[in-house]
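Hello,

I think I submitted the succinic acid job twice by accident. Can you confirm which output corresponds to this input? Input:
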Amino acid sequence: MQLESEQRSRLDRDGYLFFPNLFQPDEIAVLIDEVPRLYAERRQENVREKESDAVRTNFAAHMYSAPFARLARHPRLIEPAMQVLGEPVYMHQFKINGKMAFDGDVWQWHQDFGTWKNDDDMPAPRAMNVAIFLDEVNEFNGPLMFIPGSHKQGVIDATHDTSTTSYPLWTISHGTIARLVARGGIVAPKGSAGSMVLFHSCLVHASTSNLSPWNRVSVYLSLCAVSNHIRRFKRPEYIAHRDFTPIECLPDDCLLKDYDVALPWKSGTPQKAGDTSLAA
Ligand code: SIN
Ligand code: MN
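Support: Only one job matched these inputs. Its output is below.
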């Protein structure tokens, strides 16, 4: 899938593009049906909420689940990112965020590139996020909020918040957020399961808790230009991948046909994926 020039100008101006209903219900069913099994697993890739057993985020399912391994090679996700970055991409991070009914906690205001630079030594913000809604996203179940145009600020000062939620994040001060919102406002793309959002790694974003009775499961692919790969392996490999091989796309019907995919972590995460060191 290729972006048109009008879409590329909007992406450049706003920092995101929204594609309602890009995937069909039968394609999404293959993915959402797999989530309860993945979330039930007791493995380190499942990070649970602070106050409950609900999964906040599941990492690296593309390494041990066939439907998600196929999604990770889907041309509707990969090709626009390659087009924007102008070169092949590799998977920097792959997560399935739960934001489960009643239990889904906040994601504080942040830029993803802030974390990737500070923790992983990614050289430049030459990486894009692609989110796919596996549930409907509405105004009640904690939609992802963006400050349009905030990616133009480059890397914004942030502090490492290790206490608010169960997942540490480099977060931006309230004063800075107020200043950015005064200029750009806040948007929250909402829509059916199967919708997709493409957004810049410097776009400031957050989401509130989910007090509704509806889950808000979404998948996030963080795709990095191969030449811009991370230099530091401080975080476990299932959070910040160290395989910089360019992604090769499967055909467009890959969610509906059983294309062969490698599942290297199917019978468990290798010990080395949990290793951390400061050396690249
Ligand atoms: C994220 O910022 O990575 C996730 C935010 C969300 O799922 O609401
Ligand atoms: Mn984020």
